[in-house]
Amino acid sequence: MSTAPWQGIHVATALPFKTDLTIDLDAYAEHVQWLLAHGCHGVVPNGSLGEYQTLTVDERAAVVRTAVEASAGAGATELELVTPERTVSLDVGGIVASGYMTALAEAGVQISVLRRLRSIRRADGGSGALVVTLGVEGSDWTENRVVDAVVVEAGTQPVTDVYDELVPGSRNGGQIDLADLLARRPQTAVRNPDGTYQLFRIGDAVAGRNVHAAMLDAARLCREI
Ligand SMILES: Cc1cc2nc3c(=O)[nH]c(=O)nc-3n(C[C@H](O)[C@H](O)[C@H](O)COP(=O)(O)OP(=O)(O)OC[C@H]3O[C@@H](n4cnc5c(N)ncnc54)[C@H](O)[C@@H]3O)c2cc1C
């Protein structure tokens, strides 16, 4: 069995909006079902085409809930919500959490906490089922589930290609001196005296976020140059 996670096609789903700029959850459900009906193995709601950054916690939850429900419509009859955290939806406040928990309980959703997705592979025999391996952080222990579909919310990956290539020729090796940053001094770190330029990791090279975060990263470093 391969240990590579996310085997198959997992689409970071586009999110349709209505003309009044509210989320069109019906169109989104239709889109998810279309993707699953046309050979995708999973969908990644909120995963991130930019609009995610502007959604409220409730809207993000609604997007995930719609994806899960739409997946159920595509064939699954039982749902399990798995999270590597100690609790479900850390961002959801205590007052509204009970509402979500009630809805999940009424829908018969099983909840597994402290489980991280390790891998997904096709089950033997050509049934189209998926074998999902779950683990626990810091442990080799695993357990498997056989499921029809997987919906993953996993954030975004940084884009570091250019940064990585430039590190060897830089004077600071990409290091940001936090004392300098906080004191609003020019950056002084030197890891490679032969380096010919300073290099800083900002924006989507740190994490996929938004234009505002990239500009703030740049402004904090550049205002002292
Ligand atoms: C579909 C989509 C929609 C989004 N919508 C929004 C939104 O509505 N609002 C929002 O705030 N954010 C949005 N984002 C996120 C936002 O675009 C990014 O977070 C932001 O652009 C990151 O800025 P950056 O300067 O770090 O990287 P980038 O904007 O990616 O800039 C990196 C630049 O480096 C260049 N480059 C790469 N390799 C080389 C090379 N070898 N040599 C020279 N140049 C190179 C690239 O061409 C690019 O111009 C969206 C992202 C996507 C993908």
How are the SSEs ordered, and which strands pair?
Layout (H helix, E strand, L loop, with lengths): L9 E3 L12 H13 L4 E3 L12 H17 L6 E3 L11 H13 L3 E3 L3 E7 L7 E6 L6 E6 L2 E2 L9 H6 L11 H6 L27 H12 L3
Parallel strand pairs: 1-2, 2-8, 3-4
Antiparallel strand pairs: 5-6, 6-7
Helix pairs in contact: 1-2
Bound molecules: flavin-adenine dinucleotide (FAD).
Question: Explain this structure to me?
Answer:
There is one protein chain. The chain has 2 domains: 142 residues, FAD/NAD(P)-binding domain (3-Layer(bba) Sandwich), CATH 3.50.50; 62 residues, no CATH class. With 225 residues, it is of the alpha/beta class. The chain is 30% helix and 15% strand. Helix 1 packs across helix 2. The protein is built from 6 helices and 8 strands. The chain binds flavin-adenine dinucleotide. Flavin-adenine dinucleotide binds next to helix 6.
Features of this protein?
binds flavin-adenine dinucleotide; three-stranded parallel beta sheet; alpha/beta; 2 domains; single chain; 8 strands; 6 helices; 225 residues; three-stranded antiparallel beta sheet; FAD/NAD(P)-binding domain
Strand content is 5-15%
Overall morphology: globular
Task: Give helix % range.
Answer: 25-40%
At the fold tier of CATH, the topology name of the largest domain is: FAD/NAD(P)-binding domain
Structural class: alpha/beta
Q: How many distinct helices?
A: 6
What is shown here, in short?
With 225 residues, the protein is an alpha/beta fold. It has helices at 25-37, 57-73, 94-106, 161-166, 178-183, 211-222, and strands at 10-12, 42-44, 80-82, 110-112, 116-122, 130-135, 142-147, 150-151.
